[in-house]
Specification:
By secondary structure, the protein is of the alpha+beta class. Helix content is about 40%, strand content about 15%. The chain has 14 helices and seven strands. The model has no long low-confidence stretch (mean pLDDT about 95). Bound molecules: iron/sulfur cluster. The site of iron/sulfur cluster (SF4) has 15 residues, from helix 9 and helix 12.
Length: about 350
């Protein structure tokens, strides 16, 4: 059986020697483990270490996070994407602040908190509290697909059930903190997606895919989602040295982030026409373009977005204040104040471009 005593010893010895020095591993403080697990859900480790360290400088504990302004929380998260994670961290911190500023050492209580699902609850229970709970992340899914030579597609429901069951069966009592991390670390550092480093693998003798020469057939992947290209345009309106920004509504993926007015191009529209239309729809202002700034590109999930940016001015009713047809709030701010607000990635790239390439 692949999960015999010797397998576990090999794996844990390897982890003791090769595990990365990550900040949340210094104390396994539950707040630190929770923040790291939420950040790691959609982000590479290198970036998470930077963001985690900065986050703890700003929000060193649950109480500080609970009493922070949401704009500040989102601003500290900016660049990590998937902002619902930051909003849920904030909501959960507020709930915990009413209960003594502690994360509960109880799986059933953890999964009731905003943003904490079965995976994160299992990770907190095992890594922070060293309780016997299995976890399965993408690294473990891939590792198991090879270790057990699993032929079902890795993202299928059937496979997920199977790997969680195996993770639970393998778990050595009282060692889940180290064991779960060792599996994840082995997947992240050795059993790599394209070229696994089998010659460095501590569990090579238990690996069925290696024995059967099936490593490159495992895991079985489902066909990739089609890439969707999106073209957007936005306008920077300057009045009296201040720039118009508006805060998005609370009901979409970029809820509560700030932006310059603009949006997606309609069929047959030029980017300039889209800015004029969007400004009118969103703010009631008639604008014209004065200068094209640049076009920036960014990606999220299977979307590829190109955002065209323009300077614009109001062509009529110069002093009219912008309406709030598509936003919950707007402000006129100086360029140097923009860093205090959280923007979606495309708008932040535009700001960075202006900082590096214009006299603003
Ligand atoms: S032997 Fe190779 S394929 Fe098998 S678990 Fe180790 S690294 Fe992965």
């Amino acid at each position: 059986m692949p999960f015999d005593r010797h397998f576990i010893d090999q794996l844990l010895n390897w982890f003791n020697i090769h595990s990365r020095d990550l900040p949340w591993r210094h104390t396994y403080e539950p707040y630190h483990v929770w923040i790291s697990e939420i950040m790691l859900q959609q982000t590479q480790m290198d970036r998470v270490v930077f963001y985690f360290t900065r986050w703890l400088e700003r929000f060193p504990d649950i109480a500080t996070l609970a009493f922070a302004e949401e704009d500040e929380v989102l601003s500290c998260w900016e660049g990590l994407g998937y902002y619902s994670r930051a909003r849920n961290l904030h909501r959960t911190a507020k709930l915990l602040a009413e209960q003594g500023n502690m994360l509960p050492a109880c799986y059933e209580s953890l999964v009731k908190l905003p943003g904490i699902g079965p995976y994160t609850a299992g990770a907190i229970m095992s890594i922070a509290f060293n309780q016997d709970f299995p976890v399965v992340d993408a690294n473990i899914e891939r590792l198991f697909a090879r270790l057990f030579d699993i032929a079902t597609p890795i993202k299928s429901r059937e496979n997920k059930k199977l790997v969680w069951q195996k993770a639970a069966e393998m778990l050595p009592a009282g060692k889940s903190r180290i064991f779960n991390q060792a599996l994840m670390e082995l997947g992240a550092l050795v059993c790599l997606p394209k070229k696994p480093l089998c010659s460095q693998c501590p569990v090579i003798h238990w690996c069925k895919a290696h024995r059967l020469d099936m490593i490159h057939e495992r895991p079985v992947l489902l066909p990739k989602k089609k890439i969707v290209f999106i073209e957007m345009a936005t306008g920077i309106l300057v009045r009296g040295g201040k720039i118009l920004i508006q805060k998005r509504q609370t009901n979409d993926v970029w809820a509560n982030l700030w932006e310059f007015p603009g949006g997606r191009l309609k069929e047959g529209e030029t980017p300039q026409q889209a800015v004029v239309r969007e400004f009118l729809e969103e703010t009631g202002l008639h604008v014209g373009m004065t200068e094209e700034i640049t076009s920036v590109r960014h990606s999220y999930m299977h979307y590829r977005v190109i955002l065209h940016g323009f300077f614009c001015d109001v062509v009529a009713e110069e002093e009219k204040e912008p309406a709030l047809h598509a936003a919950q709030e707007n402000r006129w701010v100086s360029f140097s104040e923009l860093h205090r607000f959280a923007f979606p990635a495309g708008h932040r790239k535009l700001i960075d471009y202006l900082r590096n390439n214009s006299g603003i």
